[in-house]
Design brief:
heterotrimer, A alpha/beta (about 425), B alpha/beta (about 650), C alpha/beta (about 325), A: about 425 residues, Rossmann fold, B: about 650 residues, six-stranded mixed β-sheet, 19 helices, 27 strands, about 30% helix, globular
Chain lengths: ~425, ~650, ~325
């Protein structure tokens, strides 16, 4: 059970010594409660408190890392809904390949080289799931000539696995998958090669039994395959497992989940559900950028920290199909600020270019007060969005609240006319009609 | 290129020579004119409008000027640049009305029962009889004085400033070796030497007053209490608007102004002038001189303290919002520039963070929050919306920018609570006709903070505005109409008002008020949430700030500014900061307690995550999005809802 | 080991809202559509059965749009020039409802005529959106509302600055309203309160929490919807309304859907990607509790519909 800041505070020395880097013990306690700092930062905490706090801090879902040259983590999640805190570890997207595929090297190389940019971030795939329908070790050798990404090995054949895993020394692969009937040799093998083991069962009861037995053999890194005959069944199980781990603290099911949209009726839809609903690893049937890109974006969106202020993408927005002589309005990227400006102008039917400046998600006045919306930043936006190439009339309308910036902005943008607009968005249409001609 | 700017003001002419592109306000300053800039020269308030009668200027912004105004040559001095020789007519400047006359600032204050001058006070008077030097005893004056202190006052080690040292020879001889010293005992580190504050010739009666003063530098108002340190009694209380107001109404505007060339120096001088005038007035009242004041204790928000000390304040407004100093060292009046005794110690009380300053730590001390057994909430209802929550075990604090709406600024017909301000409004729910009360009982000039709270509440309860603050234009009254900024409600027709123009509550005003009340409400709810203490378990809600004296609780609850709880739990404390400074001035133990309070207070930065924003948007509604938090308002609404529906044509 | 499945015990439920009226109900629709009525988070059948499944509306315009993606123009062809034809084709494509979006160019007479023709072209219930400019919306929606009295059309889009006229006419003529707020739980609640304060029955409001497309703020809409649904189940009466979302409109605004050339290679095949963009946006919203999903491309309709069937299957 998570403790509140005040509850934790009562277990701390309460000396406000500042050695932890926070001004007071209560400030430190609140950071602890928010899991933003380690208890070890406090040199004076008693052993008794340490023990109590450690129990409340243990992650309900085990962190499992698949590793090669790159690594992908799953687990350590603490909430059911992203708004309650955030989702931490983005599910790894794996491309399924067949060991017997004559084009294996080419397919892996193509997928491995895939890189796509989304708002300044480069996305790639996370690894490959290799179906051992032929010589697994040979396939691994082939793959390793073109890709150094983490692997999922899909076979129960311990001989194949043993030789394949021997080639992957120093890595952490995932073996897929152990079931009640065959878990023992697979668990031994996983332990021997420091691999993670996927476990599979038809019901959660059986699954929990299985993880406990495997754990008793000394293997900790497990991943759950929940099965499920359709989307609704998978959703129910995934929700139940997450809730059992987080709310009921059931360690036997406190492991990340692997999903196989590649086997679903509509792969894109099943993958989207898996990403939104708690999967830790997602296996796709083949490399298809037209699906991969939207899935990578969806994953990024769902795993964005919701505690950050709601922002819109800085950029130049077109309202009511503006023409080169339409007004250029400037505002910040705080979503509500943007919406109120955009809605007023949109509603008026007047065409305009709306330049949204990166003010770290603050409203006009707050951003200005904090130095995040100044002449320099506005000028930078005007230049980097290349507003000059879109308009014939170089005239910018500043929000009235920052009239004070007009002088500096004139210096920053010498060929532009700087106009001061109204302070409230509601007065914009009237201003545009009367003053901008 | 240089241009000549000629100003005409109250039939007098003055000129300034400035280059092309100079700002009119700067030219006016050069010409020795004082044009008020309540927004700090940011072009927001429109109060610096002047009339260009001849010549070329360029208006960067014409905010708050109508096309007619511009036609007549009006321009904002802070937003208009010179492009040639120009003639300017400066209209009469707004006079700051002085509501702060004696009667209204005198707080009831009693000397703490346990005050013992000889034990609690850090400055004390010592009478010394020294033997005169002779040819045999050629001890130097300073050693002689030190020996006297050791033998007659048990003081082994004492420090003195050069300035004082320069005078002791004369004083000793003027008193014929019979002198009275004022010593300052060190605060925290007892091994440190004492300090000689003053030396006067002859014996001064031990029980005659020894003067100290407690000062609170508010963003709006400066208060000074003159205190006899011997008896502990407050002998004079005076207050005045902070002279910096003419250069910005809120702390951000001041910080901005201070970062302009010479701005910091000007603001420093302005507040010193205010303090020194107040000190003079207070001393006159007790027939003392400012130089008799040997100790000053100062509370004030962090920006005010920085500006007083001439310390650059710009980092206060910039993320991550770091002050130069939260707890300034002890200084002397000479260093600070206060016209008390030059050696008088000036003690700026410690603050917590950029937006939780010494006014709040002093307020916590005087409210007793830091010793309370039960969880107590302390609210400073003002521009900076500081809030403290806690008890004797823990204290948390936050600040939220509420804006100056409740002080009448940023509201079309808003004004300070001076003569002519509408301070309370009642609206008939059938006819929508208002009744109002005006300070000074004359014609209304505008609406002050308490009037705005009252008006907002009445407009809401009667259905003139909906819960989101939209003016209901379907309401059948000529007082509800479409104005320049959307719907508005006419509180006083032109024929009733002082200026002859209608006094209205506009949509923009409602938005500003909603934001102000939402920020304050959100501040304390987030604070309570952060530590996991439900609002309803709060034992007491203490409301500070001079504004706090005039709030009508019922209305404040109806608009969702204060939580809906038993009214007996609210307590209005008035100016808690100056009171805290007074306690700290008297008693070193209380002074140490403020240091402890500042150390113990955990500052919560509200902008660190979304929770404040969430709480803010849910409070941005009348009274609140979650009506279950305001059961008494739900009752008030349901009792009026029938009449309202039939009036606005909403019957089904 | 036998595992006890944890179930949430909610006290609140979503209101069931019926759109459209058959002749027996005072209108002319072939059938009416009921959404809402849930008593658990979406598709958790082990907690509670789902009385009504989410439905799909297809958005058509009163005039042939000139700014729609050529992919959409290919899909609908000539029918785009005739709203009645378009509506019929949309019905064939699997729509449960038709959204008719009016434009600024429509006169009140045009608008009434278009709506009447759509009503005769399809038996599905309608949602009618004004062009999104307060005065124009009111000017068009009031005559439509009066001319279609009793049809239980959803009139939109009410926003906090302009809701009174639309709500008043909907109340007077037995219609419903769509209440839109910009991705914020509190603002959603506030608008619902304002509308119901006017006397509108909460059984006649669809709330539109607004959502960004995939890559354009979908996470905000997604979480706002989850939070609204949680608040509703916890008993907050002002959030217990079915939700309508517009992934078609949002997704087809994006460069990823609109543009086929001069885009990064990593985006893959245009048509497949564009449809994935709309479909995946829609699916994320379906997972977070959407009741009415407004789409544009027939292929997305098919895919989302099939996913909904799978999700409601017990």
């Amino acid at each position: 059970m998570a403790l509140s800041g005040i509850q934790i505070y009562k277990m701390l020395p309460q000396t406000n010594c500042k050695e932890c880097g926070f001004p007071t013990c209560l400030a430190f306690a609140m950071k602890l409660a928010a899991k933003q700092v380690e208890l070890s930062a406090c040199p004076y905490v008693s052993d008794e408190s340490k023990k109590q706090l450690a129990e409340s801090a243990a992650p309900p879902i085990r962190l499992v890392t698949l590793k090669a040259s790159s690594e992908i983590k799953a687990g350590n999640e603490v909430v059911m809904f992203r708004h309650e805190k955030t989702f931490y570890n983005k599910p790894g997207l794996f491309i399924r390949v067949k060991a017997s595929d004559p084009d294996l090297a080419k397919k892996v190389a193509t997928a491995d080289a895939y890189k796509v940019n989304y708002v300044g971030m480069d996305f790639t795939i996370d690894g490959f799931a290799v179906e051992a329908d032929g010589e697994l070790a040979a396939a691994i050798k082939t793959i390793r000539t073109v890709s150094k990404r983490p692997l999922i090995l899909m076979t129960k054949d311990t001989t194949l696995l043993d030789s394949a895993l021997s080639l992957l020394a120093g890595e952490s692969a995932l073996i897929y998958a152990a079931e009640s009937s065959d878990y023992e040799p697979l668990a031994d093998l996983a332990k021997k090669h420091k691999a993670a083991l996927a476990v599979k069962a038809d019901s959660l009861d059986t699954l929990a039994d299985l993880t406990q037995k495997i754990q008793a053999k000394g293997l900790e890194d497990m991943v759950l395959d929940l099965g499920g005959k359709n989307m609704s069944e998978w959703l129910a199980r995934s929700t139940q497992v997450r809730k059992l781990a987080i709310k009921s603290n059931l360690r036997a099911l406190g492991y990340p989940v692997i999903a196989f949209p590649c086997d679903a009726k509509d792969e894109g839809i099943a993958a989207a559900q898996a990403i939104a609903k708690y999967a830790g690893f997602v296996v796709l049937s083949e490399f298809k950028p037209e699906l991969l890109y939207p899935l990578l974006v969806l994953r990024e969106n769902i795993y964005t920290d919701p505690q950050k202020p709601i922002q819109v993408q800085p950029g130049i927005y077109e309202i009511n199909s503006p023409k080169p002589d339409s007004a250029v309005l400037v505002t910040t990227n705080f979503s509500i600020t943007y919406f109120s400006v955009a809605n007023e102008v949109e509603g008026s039917g007047l065409p305009a270019w709306l330049v949204v400046t990166d003010a770290e998600g603050m409203s006009v006045l707050t951003a200005w007060a904090a130095g995040k919306f100044d002449a320099e930043r506005i000028a930078k936006s005007i230049k980097s969005f290349d507003v000059a190439s879109k308009v014939s009339r170089k005239r910018i309308v500043l929000p009235g609240h920052v009239a004070v910036l007009s002088g500096e902005l004139e210096e920053e943008l010498p060929d532009w006319e700087i106009r001061v607009g109204p302070r409230e968005a509601v007065d914009l249409p009237a201003f545009m009609k009367q003053a901008l001609n | 290129m240089q241009h000549t700017i000629t100003f005409t003001h109250e039939d007098k002419q003055s000129t300034a020579i400035v280059p092309t592109g100079a700002m009119l306000s700067d030219a006016a300053h050069l010409a020795g004119l004082d044009i008020g800039q309540p927004c700090g020269g940011q072009g927001r308030c429109g109060r610096c409008a002047v009339q260009v009668t001849d010549g070329n200027v360029r208006r960067r912004s014409t905010l708050r000027l109508s096309p007619d105004d511009i036609e007549q040559g009006y321009a904002l001095a802070c937003q208009t640049v010179v492009e040639g020789d120009v003639a300017i007519h400066v209209p009469p400047q707004e006079k700051i009305e002085r509501r702060l006359t004696t009667d209204r600032v005198v707080a009831e204050v009693t000397v703490p029962a346990d005050y013992e001058y000889l034990q609690d006070q850090t400055v004390r008077r010592v009478h010394l009889r020294l033997s005169p030097p002779t040819m045999e005893d050629q001890t130097d004056d300073w050693s002689r004085l030190q020996t006297g202190l050791r033998l007659q006052a048990n003081v082994n080690k004492v420090n003195v400033s050069l300035a004082l040292l320069q005078t002791i020879g004369d004083v000793l001889r003027a008193g014929e070796w019979d002198v009275t010293a004022v010593l300052e005992y060190p605060l925290e580190h007892l091994e440190q030497p004492l300090r000689l504050v003053s030396l006067q010739p002859h014996h001064v009666d031990e029980y005659s007053p020894l003067w100290g003063c407690a000062i609170d530098i508010g963003t709006t108002t400066v208060s000074v209490w003159l205190v006899d340190l011997v008896s502990g009694g407050v002998r004079a209380q005076v207050a005045e608007y902070n002279g910096q107001i003419a250069r910005g109404e809120d702390v951000i505007s001041r910080i901005m102004y201070a970062s302009k060339k010479g701005g910091g120096q000007e603001l420093r001088q302005r507040v010193l002038d205010t303090i020194n005038e107040l000190l003079e007035t207070a001393c006159k009242r007790v027939k003392a001189k400012p130089e008799d004041v040997v100790k000053a204790t100062i509370a004030g928000n962090s920006t005010m303290i920085h500006l007083l000390l001439g310390i650059p304040a710009s980092n206060i407004r910039l993320s991550p919002f770091i002050t130069a100093v939260n707890h300034p060292p002890l200084m002397t009046a000479r260093e600070v520039g206060i016209n008390a005794h030059p050696e008088a110690s000036v003690d700026c009380l410690p603050g917590v963070a950029s937006y939780v300053g010494a006014d709040i730590t002093a307020g916590v001390l005087s409210s007793g929050l830091d010793t309370a057994e039960n969880v107590t909430l302390f609210l400073d209802v003002g521009t900076n919306g500081e809030t403290v929550l806690g008890n004797r075990d823990w204290l948390v604090t936050c600040a939220c920018s509420a804006g100056p709406a409740f002080e009448g600024a940023g509201v079309v017909n808003g004004m300070r609570a001076t003569t002519g301000a509408i301070e309370e409004v009642w609206i008939n729910s059938e006819t929508f006709e208002p009744t109002y009360r005006v300070i000074g009982a004359g014609k209304p000039k505008g609406i002050c903070g308490s009037g705005l709270i009252s008006l907002l509440s009445e407009a809401f309860i009667t259905g003139i505005i909906d819960k989101a603050g939209n003016v209901n234009l379907m309401a059948s009254s000529s007082r509800v109409r479409e104005g320049a900024h959307g719907g508005e409600y006419v509180v006083a027709w032109g024929e009733e008002s002082e200026s002859g123009a209608d006094i209205v509550l506009s949509r923009v005003d409602v938005d500003n008020l909603l934001r102000a009340k939402a920020a304050i409400y959100a501040g304390f709810t987030v604070l309570a949430d952060t530590v996991g203490v439900p609002l309803e378990t709060m034992d007491k809600v203490l409301i500070g700030g001079s504004f706090g004296k005039y709030i009508n609780i019922e209305k404040a609850v109806q608009i969702g500014l204060l939580p809906d709880m038993d009214w007996s739990r609210f307590e209005f404390l008035g100016n808690t900061a100056v009171k805290g400074a007074y306690y700290a001035l008297l008693d070193w133990k209380k002074r140490e307690r403020i240091t402890e309070i500042a150390k113990r207070m955990t500052y919560i930065e509200l902008s660190a995550d979304n929770s404040f924003y969430e709480a803010f948007t849910s409070a941005l509604f009348l009274p609140h999005t979650d009506m279950s938090k305001f059961p008494s308002v739900a009752v008030a609404l349901s009792s009026k809802v029938k009449g309202r529906r039939s009036n606005v044509g909403m019957t089904e | 080991m036998p595992i006890e499945i944890p179930k949430d015990k909610w006290t609140g439920s979503i209101r069931a809202v019926t759109i459209g009226a058959t002749s027996a109900e005072g209108g002319t629709r072939a059938k009416s559509i009921t959404v809402g009525g849930q008593t658990s988070m979406p598709y958790l059948h082990y907690e509670a059965p789902m009385p009504n499944k989410p439905v799909i509306a297809i958005e058509i315009k009163s005039r042939k749009p000139d700014d729609w993606s050529p992919l959409l123009a290919d899909a609908w062809g000539e029918a785009m020039a005739d709203p009645a034809q378009w509506a019929k084709k949309a019905e064939e494509a699997g729509a449960d409802l038709i959204v008719v979006a009016l434009t600024l160019a429509d006169s009140p007479e045009d608008a009434v005529r278009v709506i009447k023709s759509v009503l005769s072209g399809t038996g599905l219930p309608l949602i009618v959106w004004g062009p999104g400019q307060a005065e124009k919306d009111n000017e068009l929606l009031v005559p439509i509302s009066e001319a279609t009295k009793g049809e239980k059309i959803v009139l939109g889009i009410c926003e906090d600055k302009n809701y009174r006229t639309i709500v008043a006419t909907a109340m007077a003529n037995g219609h419903l309203v769509q209440a839109r707020t910009p991705m914020d739980v509190n603002l959603s609640k506030q608008l619902n309160i304002l509308i119901s304060d006017m006397g509108m029955s909460k059984d006649r409001i669809l709330m539109d929490p607004t959502t960004g497309a995939l890559g354009y703020g979908i996470e905000y809409g997604y979480s706002v919807m989850e939070r609204l649904r949680l608040a509703a189940l916890q008993g907050d009466a002002m959030t217990q309304l079915p939700m309508i979302v517009t992934p078609g409109f949002e997704a087809w605004k994006t460069k990823e859907s609109k543009v086929g050339e001069g885009v990064p290679e990593g985006w893959g095949d245009w048509k497949a990607r564009a449809i994935n963009w709309e479909t995946l946006t829609a699916i994320a919203l379906v997972e977070s509790g959407a009741d009415v999903v407004v789409l544009r491309h027939p292929e997305s309709v098919k895919r989302v519909k099939s996913a909904i069937e799978e999700l409601v299957a017990v």
